[in-house]
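In response to the reviewer comment on reproducibility (Comment 2.3), we provide here a single inverse folding case reported in full, input and output, so that an independent group could reproduce the run without further information from us. The structure tokens appear first.
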């Protein structure tokens, strides 16, 4: 039996009362129902989360050396999935190492756009805020869904009620 893949990063803010986890960007209901999802549903949701992290991080960072990033993640024992895209991995790196990272280039990353001139801690703060906002927006039903008895949930994960 293979392990059940999960985007969990071991920092679940739903235990503190958040409706969406600041660590993995899943809703409290999605976390609760995770093990009931099929493997295909979990894989699709992980891809969605990775795409979200890549899009948000891409406004701040560019990955220039994937091997350097992976080596540093391993060196610092930061969990990542083998198929996890580079900028999604960079989000984890900044979450764990934001106070210790001095030169992003050593980690295969270059600040771009909104990230230029920011220290690692500030990069992490901005990424975390944007990711949390996006996760919250996904969790809340759209205004038109409130009045629609059969809402179109094609943009949502199958695990959301």
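Designed residues, in position order:
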């Amino acid at each position: 039996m293979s392990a059940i893949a999960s985007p969990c990063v071991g920092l679940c803010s739903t235990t503190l009362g958040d409706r969406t986890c600041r660590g993995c960007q899943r809703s409290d209901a999605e976390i609760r129902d995770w093990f009931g999802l099929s493997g295909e549903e979990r894989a699709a949701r992980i891809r969605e989360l990775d795409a979200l992290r890549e899009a948000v991080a891409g406004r701040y960072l560019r990955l220039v050396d994937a091997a350097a990033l992976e080596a540093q993640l391993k060196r610092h024992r930061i969990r990542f999935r083998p198929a996890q895209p580079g900028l999604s991995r960079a989000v984890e790196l900044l979450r764990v190492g934001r106070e210790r990272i001095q030169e992003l280039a050593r980690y295969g990353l270059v600040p771009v756009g909104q990230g230029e001139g920011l220290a690692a801690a500030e990069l992490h703060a901005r990424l975390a805020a944007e990711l949390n906002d996006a996760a919250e927006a996904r969790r809340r039903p759209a205004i038109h869904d409130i009045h629609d008895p059969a809402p179109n949930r094609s943009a949502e994960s199958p695990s959301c009620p």
